[in-house]
Amino acid sequence: MAVLTNSKHEHFAQEVAKGVSGTKAYVSAGYxxxxxxxxxxxxxxxxxVSARIKELQATISEGVVSLEIRKRxxxxxxxxxxxxxxxxxxEARATEYAASPGGATGMLVRDFRGKNAEQEIWKFDGxxxxxxxxxxxxxxxxxxxxxxxxxxxxxxxxxxxRLDDWAET
Length: 169
Known about the structure:
Shape: rod-shaped
Number of strands: 2
Order of helices and strands: HHHHEEHH
Helix content: 55-70%
Strand content: 5-15%
Distance between the termini: 72 Å
Oligomer: single chain
Strand order of the largest sheet: 1-2
Largest sheet: 2 strands, antiparallel
């Protein structure tokens, strides 16, 4: 449907489509406050105005849905990149520290202690696991409930497999 020929009717339709009450939209369109409630109710019943309001509401809702989908997609993509980096770090550590006890898990980090840092020690990287869990929780809020449990289970399976591999060595 095209724009309404009466500019006040068009302005009224646009305001109502945005969610403004009929009375406020009627006054905003340039009509008198006297009898605004009754006249707004009458104006909404005009077929052309009613059709225009529905058309504008459909256009607005399509735009909102499209925007939300793009935002969610961008957010999930950024979280996926972050998660991929952390997984790459685990893989790099697993390769580099494979010869050390537990190093093949990729979940250990090497540290040095002593006065001159001459004593080598290995620590579990709990901060990395916490960061992975936080990223998964953020991603889960962007997904449906069934997908959430799969995401949590997937990283848990990766960590469990690494720890099992480490226990076997």
